[in-house]
C-alpha cells in the first residue's frame, strides 16, 4: 500500500528519508526554541517510532539544543529535518520537508506561551498572486536553474551534468 | 535619535547578525522552495538593504537554491537565516531568527500557488503550553541544559564552562 511509505528530505537533496509507518501526533510547536531552530513562527512536526524512520541518502547533522533534545538538519543546505527527545522511542520530522506536506495536517499546537500575537491573522493577509504572476521573468529563471531536490525519491542526485 | 539596530541569529549562536535599517517589507512565502528550505509551511522573511545587514559573529553557510537565489543558514545547527535574490541590493532574514520576531509582523503573502489548503486553520487547533501538566519536569530539564543562544547579543559564546 502506497501510504505505508512517506518520503522527504532537505532542499538540496543531500539528505533523504523514508517513514515506514503513518506518522502520528502532527502538530505545530510555537516554543521559542522551535521558533529559532526553524527561523520561523513555529515548528511543524510529526513522528514515527525510530525504527520506522530510515535515512535513504546522506547523513543528518545534529544539534543538541538541550540535553533532552536532538535536532537534525542538512549540513549542506540547512533544512531543519528532525526532532527527537533522547529518551523517547520516537523521532519527528519537519512536515515541510515531507515530499507531500499537505497530507499531514497538524492536529495540535504546543508551546503556545511562545505564540506570536498576530499568528492567527496570517492567513488573511493580502496575497492573490502566484510566484509566476508576480514576476514571470524571475520565476522562469528560477525554474530553469532550480537546484532543489524534486518531491520524490531519485536514483541519482544531483543529476549528471547539472552544475550546483 | 537611536540608530536602527535589530539583532538575530541561529539557534546555537555560531552565527549572529545585526540589521542597521528598518525592514522594507515583511512577508510569508508559501512557494514549494521556501517550504522545503524551512522544513515548514512557508518562509517568514523580512528585508533590509544589503549594506545594512552585518554578520556580527561566525559565517553564513550558503545554498544556492537556483542561479537567482542564495539562502544562508548556520552549518552548526541548521537554522535558516537569510534569503536573497542575487540581482537585488537587498537581503531578507528569517523572521523567527530575529531576537524579537514580534517586531516584523508580515503584511503580505507570496507564492500562494503552493499554499497548503489548511494553513489558515492552524490557529484554531487545540493548544497547550510547554509546561503543561505532566511536562513540567521535562521543561525544567530543558531549561537547565538549554544550549540555545539567548535572544540578545553576547560578548562570549558559548559561556565559559558550558559543555557543548
Please tell me about this protein's structure.
- The complex is a heterodimer of chains A (164) and B (164).
- Chain A is of the alpha+beta class and 164 residues long.
- Chain A has a domain of 114 residues: Metal Binding Protein, Guanine Nucleotide Exchange Factor, Chain A (Beta Complex).
- Chain A has a 7-stranded mixed beta sheet. In chain A, strands 1-2-5 form a 3-stranded antiparallel beta sheet, with no helix packed on it.
- Chain A is globular and about 50 Å long.
- Chain B has a single domain, classed as Metal Binding Protein, Guanine Nucleotide Exchange Factor, Chain A (Beta Complex), CATH 2.170.150.70.
- Chain B starts with 5 loop residues before the first strand and ends in a 20-residue tail after the last helix.
- Classes of the chains: A alpha+beta (164), B mainly beta (164).
Describe the secondary structure blueprint for this structure:
The complex is a heterodimer of chains A (164) and B (164).
Chain A: E1 6-9, E2 16-19, E3 24-29, H1 32-38, E4 43-49, E5 53-57, E6 61-64, E7 69-73, E8 80-85, E9 90-94, E10 108-110, H2 131-134, H3 136-144
Chain B: E1 6-9, E2 16-19, E3 25-29, H1 32-38, E4 43-49, E5 53-57, E6 61-66, E7 69-73, E8 80-85, E9 90-94, E10 108-110, H2 136-144
Parallel strand pairs in B: 3-10
Antiparallel strand pairs in B: 1-2, 2-5, 3-4, 4-9, 6-7, 7-8, 8-9
